[in-house]
């Protein structure tokens, strides 16, 4: 059980991290792009994101995985695309206020390209909320991956995964065996720990100081 918990941590956390990174690359880039271009690009992307967000994420992921198959690549891509909608909303909301500032307009007048304006002028000024959101998104993605594995459409045996470990040992709880609680406790502990790190980062970046 200890060996499977260790290997399961590598698989579960690794997949959740990669998925969250892809979601931020996709959602963040499109959000900043929409805030810079505005007009019909902003409208089309916004309506498409609204459609995806209107469908419950877990149910949508279950349907898509049952259609395309339950491989690790499909799991990562589907969850990343679905979760990128939340990142798009946040990145657009914080970038739209930066995109109208004077230094961005000055970069446009200097003839800087769109990629330069997005990556060098806007992105550095919206990093704190994005980094904080990265921690929260990681928790949600991590819980989604575990839930899909518990339902049997995530990581497949014999690959160790915390969600599938809970499912495999669930019947033991009726005999007073605490084995199913070990991976469940690991999931809860990691989620709480990441939230503490996010809270600490928000406190540091806010500029607030504790009173003596």
List the helices and strands and how they pair.
Blueprint (H helix, E strand, L loop, with lengths): L1 H36 L1 H16 L2 H12 L3 H27 L3 H8 L4 H9 L4 H24 L11 H7 L12 H26 L6
Helix pairs in contact: 1-2, 1-4, 1-7, 2-4, 3-4, 4-7, 5-6, 7-8, 7-9, 8-9
Provide the gyration radius in Å.
Answer: 20 Å
Uncertain segments: none
Task: Please give the CATH architecture.
Answer: Orthogonal Bundle
Give the end-to-end Cα distance, rounded to a whole number of Å.
46 Å
CATH superfamily: MetI-like
Mind explaining what this structure looks like?
It is a single chain. This protein has helices at residues 2-37, 39-54, 57-68, 72-98, 102-109, 114-122, 127-150, 162-168, 181-206. It has one domain (2-206): Orthogonal Bundle (MetI-like fold), CATH 1.10.3720. It is elongated. The protein is an all-alpha fold.
């Amino acid at each position: 059980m200890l060996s499977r918990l260790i290997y399961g941590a590598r698989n579960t956390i690794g997949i959740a991290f990669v998925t969250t990174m892809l979601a931020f690359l996709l959602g963040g880039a499109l959000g900043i792009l929409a805030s810079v271009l505005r007009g019909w690009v902003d409208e089309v992307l916004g309506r498409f994101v609204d459609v995806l967000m209107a469908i419950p994420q877990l149910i949508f992921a279950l349907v898509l995985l049952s259609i395309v198959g339950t491989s690790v690549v499909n799991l990562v891509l589907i969850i990343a695309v679905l979760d990128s909608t939340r990142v798009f909303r946040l990145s657009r909301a914080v970038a739209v206020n930066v995109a109208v500032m004077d230094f961005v307009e000055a970069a446009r007048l200097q003839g800087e390209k769109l990629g330069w304006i997005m990556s060098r002028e806007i992105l550095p000024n919206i990093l704190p909320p994005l980094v904080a959101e990265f921690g929260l998104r990681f928790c949600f993605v991590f819980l989604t991956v575990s839930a899909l594995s518990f339902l049997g459409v995530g990581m497949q045996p014999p690959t160790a995964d915390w969600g599938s470990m809970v499912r495999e040992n669930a019947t033991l709880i009726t005999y007073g065996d605490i084995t199913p609680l070990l991976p469940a406790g690991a999931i809860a502990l990691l989620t709480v720990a990441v939230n503490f790190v996010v809270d600490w980062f928000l406190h540091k970046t806010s500029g607030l100081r504790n009173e003596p």
